[in-house]
Known about the structure:
With about 90 residues, the protein is mainly β.
Amino acid sequence: MRKILILHVNDNVAVALTDISQGELISQDEYLFTAKDNIARGHKLATRNISINEGIIKYGERMGHATSEIRTGEHVHVHNVLGDRLSSEVK
Length: 91
């Protein structure tokens, strides 16, 4: 059963297709990593390390930037991302 959905080859986030538990192994397509957080269905998780101020890419498009370092398998949400439309300092 697929646990994540990658919407574009350039994305650095995936969408959780099911609730994912912290410590759960994600092994799908070319991805292999462990979830660092509990991630609710429909939420995003990092498919690779993302540096502070680096763009968050979903649908192949930049949707915001990281406000802190995000490790592979971590939850990607309002606590560590600022949407570009909300920011006057687009990176």
